[in-house]
């Protein structure tokens, strides 16, 4: 028997929560002071947060999309959030106008799908590398979707994406227009909370509509709402898809390197890791130092030169902002 979406994502209620008159669920979206919570029976409850919970999380959002919560019904379709389960991980950024307040874009994501087009627009791989650094820092699995392969009949435009396959990132070659590759994408999305991101113009709306009619338009409305309201208001929303959820998170596109230690940047390039610790100097930045194992690996072709260039440029950007 195939598990339901709720079972696959750990939402099945336990006897203890049933005995207390509460139900478990997942937060689908934030709407001002209200939270839409989906329970395993398929009902979406409009919930508010119990006051005590707000005091427990003063430097972060007390409740965010993706949170697993326990709710207590108080009326038809209405509930109070009694408990927020511990977050496994978060995608967060520094809240606007603060220097130490976390804004949670999404709680408990399972993976990130980074969507680029092979053409129209031309892919900017340094932007892709920046996305990958962020998800590596959050210890999130990531895969790359190369869309619009119908514009690449010879396969020539797919060649730069092969580099990412070589260093261990899955790359799915998709055409939203023809449907090629969609079944493989559905397999990756099954039973998971997947964050979608990527630059504008890559065909994300068409791709989502190909997966589920109307889904692209729904997520585009969320994108238009980005940045409105208080810092605790998130434009992120979960959308059901088969036995998983898609999270369209426009905020990920503007994520800075918040809480990313610049000295740890080399570790976030996964192909560097076999060579870290083998440099002559323990504090090697892999720039111009003699005896650098990373630069030697680049010269031997064991580390792709474009990725090394991205590393250097990202270091320069961050150092100039300090």
Characterise this structure.
The chain has 322 residues and is α/β, with parallel strands linked by helices. It has 10 helices and 13 strands. It has 3 domains: 5-85, Nucleic acid-binding proteins (OB fold (Dihydrolipoamide Acetyltransferase, E2P), Beta Barrel), CATH 2.40.50.140; 106-254, P-loop containing nucleotide triphosphate hydrolases (Rossmann fold); 262-321, Probable gtpase engc, domain 3 (Ribonucleotide Reductase Protein R1, domain 1, Orthogonal Bundle), CATH 1.10.40. It has helices at 5-8, 15-19, 51-56, 125-137, 159-166, 182-189, 204-211, 215-224, 293-299, 305-321; strands at 23-31, 34-38, 44-49, 68-75, 78-84, 90-94, 102-107, 111-117, 142-147, 171-173, 193-197, 237-241, 244-248. A 6-stranded mixed sheet has the order 10-9-8-11-13-12, sandwiched between helices. It has a 5-stranded mixed β-barrel with strand order 1-2-3-5-4. A hairpin with a 7-residue loop joins strand 6 and strand 7 (102-107). Helix 7 packs across helix 8 (215-224). It is globular.
- Tell me the total number of β-strands: 13
Task: Output the radius of gyration.
Answer: 21 Å
SSE string, helices as H and strands as E: HHEEEHEEEEEHEHEHEHHEEHH
How are the strands of the largest sheet arranged? 10-9-8-11-13-12
- Class from secondary-structure proportions: alpha/beta
pLDDT < 50 stretches = 14-19, 226-234
Shape: globular
Kindly state the mean pLDDT as a whole number? 85
Termini separation comes to 55 Å
Query: CATH top level of the largest domain?
Result: Alpha Beta
* Beta-strand percentage range: 15-25%
Number of helices: 10
């Amino acid at each position: 028997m195939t598990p339901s979406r709720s079972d696959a994502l750990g939402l099945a209620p336990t006897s203890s929560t049933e005995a207390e008159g509460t139900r478990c669920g997942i937060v689908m979206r934030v709407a001002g002071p209200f939270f839409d919570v989906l329970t395993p029976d398929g009902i979406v409850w409009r919930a508010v947060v119990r006051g005590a919970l707000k005091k427990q999380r003063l430097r972060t959002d007390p409740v965010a999309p993706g949170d697993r919560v326990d709710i207590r019904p108080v009326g038809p379709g209405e509930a109070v959030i009694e408990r927020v389960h511990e977050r496994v991980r978060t995608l967060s950024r520094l809240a606007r106008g603060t220097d130490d307040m976390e804004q949670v874009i999404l709680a408990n994501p399972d993976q990130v799908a980074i969507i680029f087009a092979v053409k129209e627009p031309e892919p900017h791989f340094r932007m892709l590398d920046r996305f990958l650094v962020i998800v590596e820092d959050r210890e999130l699995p990531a895969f790359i979707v190369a869309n619009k392969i119908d514009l690449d009949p010879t396969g020539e435009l797919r060649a730069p994406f092969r580099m990412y396959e070589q260093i261990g990132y899955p790359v799915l070659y998709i055409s939203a227009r023809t449907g090629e590759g969609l079944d493989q994408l559905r397999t990756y999305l099954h039973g998971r909370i997947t964050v979608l991101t990527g630059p504008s113009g890559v065909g994300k709306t068409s791709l989502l509509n190909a997966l589920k009619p109307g889904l692209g338009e729904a997520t585009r409305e969320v994108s238009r709402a980005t940045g409105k309201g208080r810092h605790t208001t998130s434009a992120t929303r979960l959308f059901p898809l088969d036995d998983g959820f898609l999270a369209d998170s426009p905020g990920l596109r503007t994520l800075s390197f918040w809480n990313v230690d610049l000295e740890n940047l080399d570790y976030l390039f996964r192909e560097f890791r076999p060579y870290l610790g083998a440099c002559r100097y323990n504090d090697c930045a892999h720039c111009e130092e003699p005896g650098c194992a990373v630069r030697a690996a680049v010269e031997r072709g064991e580390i792709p030169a474009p990725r090394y260039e991205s590393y250097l440029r990202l270091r320069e950007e961050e150092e100039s902002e300090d």
